[in-house]
Amino acid sequence: MISLLRIEKELRKGVLEILLLNIISTDKLYGYEIMKKIHEESHGFFDLKEGTLYPVLYRLEDEECIESIWESAESRRGARRKYYLITEKGKVVLETYTKAWDKFSKEVNMILNGGQRHGKEV
Amino acid sequence: MEKKYKEYIRKVVSNINCDYQLKKRIESDLYEIMMEKHGETGIEDPFLLMGDPEKVAEEFKENLNIKEDYYHKGRFYDIRGIPRNMEYKSEKMIFGIPLIHINNRPYGVAKGIIAIGSFSIGVISLGGFSLGLISFGGFGAGILMAFGGVALGGLFAIGGMALSLLWAIGGMAIAGYGAIGGYAQAGYFAAGGKAVAGEIAIGSVAEANVAIYRQRGYGNYLFNFDEISLKQIAEKVKMIIPEVPDYICDMIRNFTGGFRY
Questions:
Q1: Which of B51, B50, B54, B59 is CA-nearest to residue B31?
Q2: Is B4 helix (H, G, I), strand (E, B) or coil?
Q3: pTM to 2 decimals?
Q4: In B, which residues are within 8 Å of A49 by CB distance?
Q5: Buried b (16+ CB within 10 A) or exposed e, A42-72
Q6: CB nearest B35 (choices: A50, A54, A76)
Q7: DSSP tag of B127
Q8: Contacts of A35 in chain B (CB under 8 A)
Q9: Which of A31, A51, A82 is facing B60, going by the closest CB pair?
Q10: Is a pLDDT exceeding 60 seen at residue B36?
Q11: Stronger pLDDT, A36 or B65, i.e. the higher one
Q12: Quick check: A56 contacting B, CB < 8 Å?
């Protein structure tokens, strides 16, 4: 039997990069803030743990889609926080991802909803 | 609190098989997130804040695509079947420290009651650089004993270069009390090619209060062991310094091989 949890997990993993890029594109955010924001905006559907969030951030940073800067945080009595910002390359990647996602989701929905199919009928 | 958090983070990263830089990256991010969570919730206990460190590590490994090694005939292999350097930590803990920790990775640090690694810290410690109660290593520092290329021992040191507060034996041996070596220097007794000591020195060249020499001697009481037997010298030393331990007299008596034809 196919596990629903496993499918959900895989689907979530697949869209995390685009979601994180999108969230970071609006403002510079630190790790914990990203976790909270994604949780709020998805109404609790995306409840990220550190072990999921940071590997994606590392990949995006290594691919130069985002960059990090350390700044002192007033709310933490001057302790430093690592903020993430989207780069120019990241903006381009986000735009490409978004277009690809639109097309992908439209096509998948169409198939799942039994809509018009393209290509040769067999 | 900071110490507890760092210990927790160490538990997480010790379960993630990755390079040093990535470990440091994870450590720094986990620490920051723990401080944020603590600031928001007021909870200090890292386990309540973050959960089981092994599960945190598992999630990192899964999302970083770090595969588990497997063990076959005494070696660890990665998922492609390529032999890996190995790290082993025993489950048995004593005062929160693993009984055995072996870290054979390049620049790997092993910390355990018995620690073996490039850098090792333990009660019994073996490694390139080892620090412990008893240490063996290229560079070994031991509170009790050290053995190594360079050995620094609290009580005893044996090595190419041996330094100790009590006894040292080595190519170059320097000690607070007794030293034996090519070059030996000590506070009380030294024996070697060149021996320098506070009280008794025996060697080709000897310098001490009582200097037993073959080529040159410097001191208050000089004995050339080409002219008088070592047995006689030992008796005279006992007369000059009555409190001299018997085992040192025995060493003088038996120290013939290196100096006699």
A1: B50
A2: helix
A3: 0.51
A4: 56, 59
A5: eeeebebbbbbbbbbbbbbbeeebbbeeeee
A6: A76
A7: E
A8: 33
A9: A51
A10: yes
A11: A36
A12: yes
CB-defined contacts A:B, below 8 A: 53
A14 pLDDT above the threshold of 90:
no
β-sheet with A80-86: strand ranges across: A29-30, A80-86, A66-72
Phi and psi at B24, nearest 5°, equal -65, -40
* Token pair of B9 as six digits: 């983070």
Q: Distance between CA atoms of A61 and A47, rounded to whole angstroms?
A: 22
Contacts of B50 (CB under 8 A, 6+ apart): A50, B8, B30, B34, B37, B56
Average pLDDT over residues B57-79: 72
Contacts of B1 in chain A (CB under 8 A): none
Computed from CA positions of residues A103, A108, A111, A114, in that sequence, does the dihedral angle turn out positive or negative?
Answer: negative
From residue B17, alpha-carbon distances to A58, B31, B105 in Å are: 16, 19, 10
Could you say which of B33, B35, B64 has the minimum Cβ distance to residue A50? Answer: B33
pLDDT at A79 over 90: no
Residues in chain A, total:
122
Determine which of A1-15, B78-92, B148-162, B197-211 has the lowest per-residue pLDDT on average.
B78-92
CA distance B24 to B119: 17
Residue found under tokens 């926080």: A81
The pLDDT assigned to B7 comes to 92
pLDDT tens digits, B131-146: 999 999 899 999 999 9
Task: Check residue B209 and give left, alpha or beta (phi > 0: left; psi -120 to 50: alpha).
Answer: alpha
* Phi then psi dihedrals of residue B79, to 5 deg: -60, -25
The answer to whether B129 touches B110, Cβ cutoff 8 Å, is no
Beta strands, E only, B97-188 = 97-98, 100-103, 109-153, 156-164, 167-175, 178-186
Residue B149: how many other CB atoms lie within 10 Å: 15
Calpha distance A50→B59 (Å, rounded)? 8
Which of B9, B21, B31, B33 is the best residue to mutate to test the A interface, defined by the most A CB atoms within 10 Å of its own CB? B33
Mind telling me how many Å the CA of B57 is from chain A's nearest CA? 7
Confidence bin at A73 (pLDDT 50/70/90): confident
